[in-house]
Specification:
Blueprint lengths: L2 E5 L4 H12 L5 E4 L10 H4 L9 E4 L2 E4 L1 H12 L11 H25 L1 H7 L8 H15 L12 H12 L12 H11 L4 H21 L1
Parallel strand pairs: 1-2
Antiparallel strand pairs: 1-3, 3-4
Helix pairs in contact: 1-3, 1-7, 1-9, 4-6, 4-7, 5-9, 6-8
Organism: Clavelina lepadiformis
Family: Belongs to the GST superfamily.
Subunit structure: Homodimer.
Length: 218
């Protein structure tokens, strides 16, 4: 078995795949694809993933892209035991799948405010008019967490990884208005306390915040 992950540390979806690999205790080879130098658009990478996106995973001769699909595949293929990141019970898995879809929407809502592309490449700022979208998303988190200890159930699942991802990005502009969301704050603290969290996220988040803040200063 040779798992090979094509990614870059600054990419939030890439980091969620890294978290899944580490949670499952899987060894893998890293291949850094530098998006800032256009390596994802070069012919050699487009042969691997025609969409020109990271992350992308190669498992021997099997290649899969899209972070949620990659993480689901890894769990389907390699996860063992009863307390699973991706449950096998259809109803439990359905709940995880549902929130994996929701996480795309919450990501869009928060990114509309953070405006990463605009800040890094077009000299723009966070879009203050979109603060309301952030609060709408946080209302969803608080609602889910009023029912269960984690975002999709009382145990840790892939849904937690992908719902945590956009929340972590709110640190780029320094957003910290969580006073009305105590359950969300406590849940995110549990995610950050996972033994593989820093190893999976610290470098990428630090680099991304540095780039973002430097662009704002300019």
């Amino acid at each position: 078995m040779v798992l090979k992950l094509y990614y870059i540390h600054q990419s939030p979806p890439s980091r969620m795949v890294v978290m899944t690999l580490k949670a499952l205790g899987l060894d893998y080879e890293e291949v850094i694809v530098n998006l800032f130098e256009g390596e994802h658009k070069k012919p050699e990478f487009l042969k691997i993933n025609s969409r020109g996106k990271v992350p992308c995973l190669s498992d021997d001769n099997y290649v899969i892209a899209e972070s949620r699909a990659i993480c689901s595949y890894l769990c389907n293929q390699y996860e063992k035991g009863d307390n699973r990141l991706y449950p096998t019970d259809p109803k439990q898995r359905g709940q995880v799948d549902q929130i994996l879809y929701v996480s795309e929407n919450t990501n869009d809502m928060m990114m509309a405010y953070i405006n990463v592309g605009g800040v890094l490449f077009r000299g723009e700022k966070p879009v203050e008019e979109k603060i309301g979208e952030v609060k709408k998303a946080l209302d969803l988190y608080e609602g889910y967490l009023s029912k269960t200890g984690y975002i999709a159930s009382d145990g840790l699942t892939l849904a937690d990884f992908f719902m945590a991802s956009p929340l972590l990005m709110l640190d780029l502009p320094g957003y910290d208005d969580f006073k009305d969301y105590p359950k969300t704050t406590a849940w995110l603290a549990k995610i950050k306390a996972l033994p593989y969290f820093d190893e999976s996220n610290k470098e990428g988040l630090t680099k991304m915040k540095e780039m973002y803040q430097n662009a704002l200063k300019k």
